[in-house]
Write a structure and sequence with these properties.
3 helices; 206 residues; 8 strands; single chain
Amino acid sequence: MKRDLTIVSAVLIIVFVFSPLLPTPPSNAQRNQTSLDAQALVQAKQFFSRMYKRCGEYYYYQKREQRFDLYQCKYAPTVSVNGKTLQPKRLSEADRLNGVDPLPVTWEGGTRINLGLCRRQSYYNKVGLGPDAWGQWEDNNSYALNFKNVKGEWQFYNEPTGGEMYTKKVIVPIACEEVPIVTGSPPSVPHPGRSREINLTRGHCW
């Protein structure tokens, strides 16, 4: 009996001494932050996946200001997010009577697509596109935009409204049929009276 008491006492002493060194379990707020951060990254990747295409050996990406900028990139892009989970705000009695939502937005932040090594050509209409219109190759091309989670719905600030049409950079979907050249071979020569054709013999879209 005495031996059992000694063992129990020794165990209690060890627990008392080493318990402060044990990792603290994450709080509900921390778990929620991690969960929403993970969801945000998934949503951002899905969003940007609609905005670029792999055609042949290159990746193509397009954005719009007063003109269109078409990017031809050598490597697959990467996507990152940076944001925070919001907490309900304390409401006054008037707020509650007025039906104010204590947590209209649960997460907000930004996302960036890193395009890496790219070259581009700019145009106001598709007539200006061509295999000889590419600029110089440049490093560290990227684009960022804000987004948030509103009642479980992820909203991206991408579509222009009103006066923003010619001031806000907006990324737009692109298809392989829109790029001026897919491989290193010369583009096909359009027949007079027919629309210009794109050489997609060796290119594929993903």
